[in-house]
Amino acid sequence: xxxxxxxxxxxxxxxxxxxxxxxxxxxxxxxxxxxxxxxxxxxxxxxxxxxxxxxxxxxxxxxxxxxxxxxxxxxxxxxxxxxxxxxxxxxxxxxxxxxxxxxxxxxxxxxxxxxxxxxxxxxxxxxxxxxxxxxxxxxxxxxxxxxxxxxxxxxxxxxxxxxxxxxxxxxxxxxxxxxxxxxxxxxxxxxxxxxxxxxxxxxxxxxxxxxxxxxxxxxxxxxxxxxxxxxxxxxxxxxxxxxxxxxxxxxxxxxxxxxxxxxxxxxxxxxxxxxxxxxxxxxxxxxxxxxxxxxxxxxxxxxxxxxxxxxxxxxx
DNA sequence: AAGAAAGTCAACCGCCCACGT
DNA sequence: AACGTGGGCGGTTGACTTTCT
Length: 316
Description:
- Helices cover 54% and strands 2% of the residues.
- It has two domains: 3-72, Homeodomain-like (Arc Repressor Mutant, subunit A); 83-314, no CATH class.
- The chain has a two-stranded antiparallel sheet with strand order 1-2.
- By secondary structure, the chain is an all-alpha fold.
- Strand 1 (199-201) and strand 2 (204-206) form a beta hairpin.
- It contains 15 helices and two strands.
- It binds a DNA duplex through residues 25-28, 46-49, 60-63, 65-67, 70-71, 98-101, 112-114, 116-117, 120-122, 125.
């Protein structure tokens, strides 16, 4: 049924009483979920206000739409944000900022709401711990130069472990999982484009992120013929000019690569002298971070802390 | 064990834009 | 051109859960 043709038999005769009936708010009940799912499965979605009426839901159209898109939709993926997804979120956020829906397009099954929540609860939390604004250049570059490479390193390590396990006939479930994430989260585009062949980072393959910009045969114009400004993002350099992750501690790497950018970037080491109060961070937060049980979900793990501290001391 | 604090996330709100009339 | 409506978006809230003291 064409949703455009949807029309409740009584939609034209909705009584004022019904019109003014108090709408439900707050958490959805199982019955409401069933009603919404059943209705959409037979009639399709769209025209949310009339859909809400016709489905007999005392909800606003917006509420129905939100419930469907963020929770009931069959392809919605739940659970922890994977390392690959974290990397992708950081990468895309560095390009587009708080364009959550746009970012969500590149993470199949994830909703803009979920990504937004992830950003606010995890990323902003760590910016707070570093005593800098999440939108500050300091924090952004710290993410680019330190955090994202560390994520890549961890992804590689997980992949290597999984590969080894598979080679020895061990449980390959992890391998399958990681492969799935890489192929489906990072290398997929909203329009179904396939990304460029995998680049290598530190000797391991990492799929190049395919965006409308770079999936259109690397041209400088988009599918509408509009000029698309090249993404001058260090992560692109990172993907396209693989450098062993260990070299990230080498200031020369940054200085050499920065030459490609019109805007000179301050190396992360510079920040250790300029702004980030790592001593305070160490005093205030290290114990908390170090003692955190689940490191997999933390942006900074024990190694990161150690790494940051080394950088700090080397630049004293 | 219990209360407080912090974290998480579903849901709501208000604004904006596109589109039809 | 003006208006109404539907839908999408980012920001915010608040209930619930988890962790800490």
